[in-house]
Amino acid sequence: MFINYAKESKGILESKGILSIIMMIFLISITPILSFADTGTTIVPADGSGAPGCEETADRCFIPYVASIGVGTTVIFSNTDTVAHTFTSGNPDDGANGMFDTSLLMTGSSFSYTFDKEGTFNYFCVVHPWMTGVILVDDNYSQKPKYSDIQLFTDKKSYTEGDTIKVFGTVSDNLGIDMSLVVEKPGGKIIAIEQFNVKSNNTFETQIKTGKTFDVDGVYSIKVQYGSENADLVAFEFHQLTKDIVPPLLLMPSDMLVETFDQQGAIVEYSVKAIDDVDGVLESFCNPSSGSMFSVGDTMVTCQTFDNSGNDAQKSFRVTVQLDVSSPIIPDWIKEVSGFWCNDEINDDSFVEAIQYLIENDVIHVPLTYDSGTKSSGIIPNWVKNNACWWSENRISDDDFASGLEYLVRQGIISV
Ligand SMILES: [Cu+2]
């Protein structure tokens, strides 16, 4: 603790020299300044009090400015500042009264004095007369309630993994002791205990990092205890980050049967969708891809998708491409019907109706494609009509015309 350090400081100084002085200034400058009412009181000069100005601050030039102690308490005057000061009983106007005097106290040095009688004792620094302080010695000091109201806050009401909880507040009276803090998780189990200083301006602050001990969601509480009697409580919610461990779902087509006249196989189009409980609709990747050439026989199409948390799903379906060895049978007089369409004597719908009628009644035989998985726009492409025109004029073969009809079947424009 700070007191012990101050008591030993002279010895350290004498034995270790300059390096120790530098070390000690550093240590003292980061050591919080407290008064310990029960075990003794330490009074220090405010940092930089060698220049005027501290007398206008809330803390004044000696900290604490007013030290309340009981009879028999030993006060330690410790020079934690970077310049020499004196702690001299009396006041700047009347001068030293001879009760106590540290004389010129160098940086890092301390001086102790025990107050044996009640009274109000003023003191000052001879070198810097704007520095004044008061010591109140009270015979009943130990019987006084060591009680302080506490106001306790957290910077937020809700936290999640990785957050730092800022805890801060004020006390009505500085008891000169450490404040203790306890964090409880839902169910009341203590997961953290900490001790920290109350500052000389009656405020306190500390931080709690949410770590592995924050392992359930719910309402956590922070309790601070200050002195033997008083405590305050603040609650906050904690939620773990939600982790997506559920894989996405692939929505697959049924197995497909495709007929073709082409010995190379058939172009097969299909559609695969993927959804995820967290990420919504996802992209999927299939091999072989939709719209590629499938050779005659069975092909397993394997599809895969990933959600944004790296969970994956994999599914497959079968595409069977069947070679239709029979040649398309299209009676010659159908050319006449194609000619009607070509010359706009019948419209698209009538042509489709005619072809459908002839397929259904086995007058025309074309390869069939089941469950193509694609939705047609219902519009007959120009090239199909061109084919019909050319075929009616004997400019293209029956097979070429049949491939146009096959396209219409696959698109669902002609249903069979
Ligand atoms: Cu001084």
TrEMBL record:
Molecular-function GO term, any one: copper ion binding
A Pfam family assignment: HYR
Domain spans labelled HYR: 243-323
Entry keyword set: Copper, Membrane, Metal-binding, Repeat, Transmembrane, Transmembrane helix
Keyword Metal-binding appears in the UniProt entry: yes
Signal found in the keyword field: no
Highest taxon of source: Archaea
Segments passing through the bilayer: 17-37
PANTHER family named among the record's database cross-references: BLL1555 PROTEIN
Protein name per UniProt: HYR domain protein
Source organism per UniProt: Marine Group I thaumarchaeote SCGC AAA799-D11
Lineage of the species this protein comes from: Archaea, Nitrososphaerota, Marine Group I
